[in-house]
Amino acid sequence: MSVRSGRHGRSGGHGELPPLRRNSRFQMLWMGAAASELGTTLTWVAFPLLILAVTGSAALAGLVGACRITANLLFSLPAGAWVDRWDRRRILIAAEVVRCLALAALAAAVLTGRVALWQIVAVAVVTGAADSFFGPARAAAIRAVVAPGQLPEAYAREEARGHAASLAGPPLGGFLFGLGRALPFAVDALTYLVSLVCVVRARVPRRPAEAAEAAERRETGMRADVMEAAGWLWRHRGLRAGLAFALVANLAANALLLPVIVMVEARGGDAAATGVVLAGLGLGGLLGATLSARIGRLLPPGRLMLAVVGFFALAVCATALPFGPYWPVVPLFLAMVAAPALNVVLRVLLARLVPDAMTGRVVSVFTLATMGLTPVGPLLGGLLAQYAGGAGALVAVGGLLAAGCAVAAISPALRGLDVPDATAGSAPSAVPVLAELGREPVSER
Description:
Layout: H1 24-55, H2 58-85, H3 88-111, H4 117-145, H5 151-179, H6 183-202, H7 209-217, H8 222-234, H9 239-253, H10 257-266, H11 271-290, H12 292-296, H13 301-318, H14 329-336, H15 339-353, H16 359-371, H17 376-408, H18 412-415
Helix pairs in contact: 1-2, 1-4, 1-5, 1-6, 2-4, 2-16, 2-17, 3-4, 3-6, 4-16, 5-11, 5-15, 8-16, 9-17, 10-11, 10-17, 11-14, 11-15, 13-14, 13-17
């Protein structure tokens, strides 16, 4: 029995899917994202280092990080609705052009020695807004070019890519910043250009047929569209408890960067040492991505979430132990090993359950619901680092995570979060909720 060739690249004569490695459209999207995410992790370290060099204030460095996340969240809801209405290929291309030009302009300003704080803030806001469009559009693109049966493998590769970038990016960013303050930003601009070329070559469907038909039938306004997606998420049992827990977890996780930088510097480490320490997150996540299928089967998602975040809290506190500037590599590595399993489960579940015509909106609403407090994270981390020192700030952040776990563990709804049987035709009773731990939610992260 032959199988028609469709949007997912099914084989035409044998009814079997070709290996994902032969899906050229997915491979182009993957390579483009790998390039841009490597650039993003370069500037993840370079941005606070630049602000510390320009102003000497950890609090201001945290404020700039908060501005980028805030812009991402403010634009996320309208961006999701527009992704479901507009040409997704053009959205991806436009987002990459904007991010490339913004980083190139910042690199030029740094190179000429005329960079000011307002310019750094402006670039953070512009790139954060572009991220809010790129994320849901790329999520829809992955669904459009990958067969449903290959989504777990595709998302596991996505996780591995992101954590590999987190492994290579921070030390490379610190090294490049040491060579020249403009270099990390120039390289980031170049990676967005590479991603742009890959998006064009991937031939992302402009809008799936069912999404186009739904858009033509839909006469509601943007607010009603967003409320429809919010209602879809709200109706799942146990989701409210999971969202509340994710808010606290992501607030704490996004407060880590500046305290780690300040503590490493206080212990005599330079920019390169800071990059090596932060690479522990990427190394642990990379290992975790390869083990995600096994780890995801150990516990139901709700209990696994409690276990992962609880262990993460202990690891954050352990980074403050006085064992030298490189010691935090060990607990940060261990903290990230289990996180990718939850992220893979979540992505696959949403991709299988959410109607294609609602993908952009659901991704955006989910991002806002789980990341609503993350703009406070960098600011909180900066203030704690400035007034309590890096080690004291890390103990405080770890304590916040531990307290959140203790409160969340009381909720039967959260403990009962589970993935439904894939063969059951009904909607799930609940879905797991966990965003990326320890990484700023930009672009595809």
